Amino acid sequence: MSSASKNLAGPFSLKRRIESLARGLGVAPARVGDALWEAGLLPSQASISLPKKAPALYAERHKRPDIANLGIIDFLRAVWRPWIEARALTRVDLRRLDPSADRALQNFLRKSKLPGDLHIPKKSEILRAQLEHMPAEKIRAARRAINWNRRNAL
């Protein structure tokens, strides 16, 4: 049995690890991932880096004839495909780089699901995946760092 599967087995399941960390930090379980993310204790999974500026803005797509008549799904495929395929683009990044595309995607997701070829995870999905493989020692170190920051925040 690998060390990763040992860490997830039995009483040390991911759910219990998160709940334990939340109790130790004095935060809600949903807030644990955010606290670890903000403390910079979760690594990035991107294999290619995102651009500093969006290649094209959804709100300004009418200015480019090649993407002028595209809906949000086809726009994402045409403009963001390399980053989506590399699993580098997240909803947080899309919101930061192209807020109008993120709003259009939110509207689309109210009634439909994302097609299988478009995987644009939310921050919570990324955190959950990263916590599944985080060793217990790193979780303890994160707990200590966050507690230290909370004590010295004033």
Topology:
Layout: H1 3-8, H2 14-25, H3 29-38, H4 72-85, H5 91-97, H6 99-111, H7 123-132, H8 136-151
Structure description:
By secondary structure, this protein is mostly helical. The protein folds into two domains: 3-42 and 134-151, no CATH class; 58-123, no CATH class. Helices cover 57% and strands 0% of the residues. It is built from eight helices and no strands. Helix 2 packs across helix 3. The longest helix is centred in the C-terminal third of the chain and has 16 residues, at 136-151. The radius of gyration is 19 Å and the shape is elongated. Mean pLDDT is 78; it is low at 1-11.
Please provide a brief summary of the model.
This protein has helices spanning 3-8, 14-25, 29-38, 72-85, 91-97, 99-111, 123-132, 136-151. With 154 residues, it is mainly alpha-helical.
Number of strands: 0
Q: Determine the structural class based on helices, strands and strand pairing.
A: mainly alpha
Helical element count?
Answer: 8
- How many separate structural domains? 2
Main sheet: strands, sense, barrel? none
Low-confidence stretches: 1-11
Distance linking N and C termini? 45 Å
Q: Tell me, briefly, the overall form.
A: elongated
> What share of the residues does DSSP label as strand, in percent?
under 5%
- Structural Rg: 19 Å
Q: Helix-strand pattern, N to C?
A: HHHHHHHH
